[in-house]
Amino acid sequence: MMRLADLGEFGIIERISRLLPATPKDVVVGIGDDVAVLDTSGPNYLLATCDIQVENVHFLRHGISPQQLGRKVVAINVSDIAAMGGRPRWALVSLGLPSDLSVTFIDELYHGLNAQAQVSGLSIVGGNLSQIKGPLVIDLFLLGECDKECFLRRDGARTGDAVLVTGDLGDSRAGMELLMHPELQVPEEVRTQVLAAHLTPHPQLAEGQLLAASRRVHAMLDVSDGILSDLGHICESSGVGASLDLAKIPISSACRQVAEAAAASPEEWALTGGEDYQLLFTADPTEVEAIQALVSQQTGAAVTVVGRIVAAPGMITVIEPDGTMKTPSGASGWDHFKQRKQP
Amino acid sequence: MMRLADLGEFGIIERISRLLPATPKDVVVGIGDDVAVLDTSGPNYLLATCDIQVENVHFLRHGISPQQLGRKVVAINVSDIAAMGGRPRWALVSLGLPSDLSVTFIDELYHGLNAQAQVSGLSIVGGNLSQIKGPLVIDLFLLGECDKECFLRRDGARTGDAVLVTGDLGDSRAGMELLMHPELQVPEEVRTQVLAAHLTPHPQLAEGQLLAASRRVHAMLDVSDGILSDLGHICESSGVGASLDLAKIPISSACRQVAEAAAASPEEWALTGGEDYQLLFTADPTEVEAIQALVSQQTGAAVTVVGRIVAAPGMITVIEPDGTMKTPSGASGWDHFKQRKQP
Predict the structure, then answer these.
(1) Domain B162-335, CATH number (from 1.10.530.10, 3.90.650.10, 3.30.950.10, 3.40.50.2300)
(2) Interface pTM (ipTM) of the complex?
(3) Are A38 and B89 inside 8 Å of each other by CB?
(4) A43·B43 Cβ contact <8 A
C-alpha cells in the first residue's frame, strides 16, 4: 500500500490534479497553483485561495496568542493574493473547535482575524463551525480580484531573467527557533523582531499590486515554503532552472544573531525556513533598477537580486560565498525540508 | 469561564457576527446565513459557502466509503446553493489528512468529489492539504452564482404563508440508525433506500432554481438540521412564527419501517433528524397549487404543505395527529437536538 508520506505534499497535489477532469474555459488558472483565477463574466477576474492551519502541525496553542493566530491566518492567505498582484475582498472561516476551548479564545481569534482583515481591505462574510475531537483547525477561504490584463502567475520565468526578492529571508525561522528554545541568549530587540516575523507576518500586498501593475515582472510567488522550494515551483512551471547566489540572499542582523546563538546556519534558515511571506519574482535584468526604484519609492521595501534563471529545466544551483556550487536534490528543495513538510 | 458548549453552535455564530465590523456595501447577504451573497460588479451575484466535515463528528470512517464521502461533501454544499436558487460553479477542497490514510483513500475520495461535481455542474479548482494528528477533516468551499433579481433568502416569510417542503423527511436519520444498528431487521430495498439517503444525499438543485425563478416563493432554506430547527431559522430571520401539522409531514414507508424496527418515532426523526437536504420554503397559500404543478412537471419532485406561518415571532407549534399542540422550546428546535449539535 502506497502511503501518503511516500508521495509528500506536492506529490499528492500532482496526483489529485491528474484525477480531476479537464479545466473548463471559465477557469483561467486551476489546481496546482496557490490561487485559482476564475472568470465570472465581471470586469475583473475572481481569485480564490484557501489555507488550512492545524494545531501541532502549523502552530502550537501555547506558542501563539489567539489574536496573533487570527492575524496570521488572514495574512498568509492575503500573501497568496498579493503574489498575483490582486486585491483581497471577502473571506469565509471554517473552524474545527476542540471542546476545551474557551469562548474568550474565539473572541480573541476573531479580534485578530478582523484586525488583519481591516488592514488588508477584506471582509469576513461567513464560515462554518464544527466540534472536533482533536487539534484546533482553522481553514480560511479568501476571495479576491485582479485586473484581467495584469495579474502574475508562476509560469512566466524566462532564461536570463534576474531572480528578485522583497525584504529579508530567515526571520520567521529565527522566530520559530526562539519559540522552541526560549532560553537562547539574544538582545531583546532581536527577540521582538524575529518573533513578530514568525507570529504576525506582514503580507507584501502593496508591493505585489505595484509589481503586477508595472508589467515589468515575468513570474511571481510568495516565499511560504522557503525560497529554494518556491523558486523550484517557478522553475518547474516555467520549464527553466535557476542559480541562487547565497552571498546575496538578504538576511537580517537579527536572524544572524539568533542563528549564532543556536549554532545554526542563517543561510540555511533563509533558504528553507519558510513562512517569510516575502515576494519572489523574476524580471529582465535591464528592468531591475527601475523595479527597485519603483518599489522603494512607493512602499519603502527593499528589492534584492539573488540569482538568475537558466536554461536547465528543474535544476537549481546554489553558489556558496566561496564560489563552490551545490545542487539540492531536485527543484522541490533540500531533502530534509521535504521531509518536514510531508503530510 | 464560559464554555463553547454553553453557547451552542448558533450561539457562537451570533457572538461571532456581533464581533465583526459593519457589512460593506458589496456584501448583499453576510454572516449568519448559510451562503454569502457578494457583488463582484459582474452580471450575476457571487455565492460563497463552506462546510467543514470532521471524522467522528459528521461521519465514521468505517461507516461511509471514501467515494460516498466525497460525493456527500459536495452534495451538502450544493444543497445550500440550491436553497438560494443559485448555480454552483467552482469548489476548493481543504484536507486535514491523518498519516494512516492510504493513497487509495485519496483517489477514491476525489472520484466521489468529481462525480458529484460533474452532476452538479461545478469544477474543483484548488485547495490545500495538511497533515493532522487527529481525525480526518474535509472542508469544502463552494462558489456559485445567481441572478441579481431572483435569489431566495431565509428572511422573507410572511404571516399567513403556507410552509412547504420537497420530497420526504426522515430517511437520512433512518439510514443513520441502520449504520449504528445494522442488526435491525428490515427488507433489503428499505435498507438500500435509507442508506442512500444518508450516505449519498441528492441536493434539490433543479427544484431550487425553478422555485427561485418562479418568483412565487418568499423564503427558502435546505433541511440540513431537521425541519424544526431550519423552520426556526426562517422564523427568527423573518420575525414570524409557524405551526407545523405533524400528520402532513411527508414520511416514506421505508423510514416508518426502520423506525418501527428500532422502536423509535418516525415523526421525531422527520422533525429533528436532519441531513435530508430537501428544500423548505414559504409561499402565499393561493400559489401552492401552481408551485406543486410546476415542480412536479419539471422535476417530478413532490411538494407538500406541512404548516403555516403565524404572527407569533420565534414560536413554533407542532400540531399532533390527535389535535393536541406541542411547543418545542424556542425556535431553534427540541432541546435534545440542540445538545446533539453543540460544538
Answers:
(1) 3.90.650.10
(2) 0.91
(3) yes
(4) no
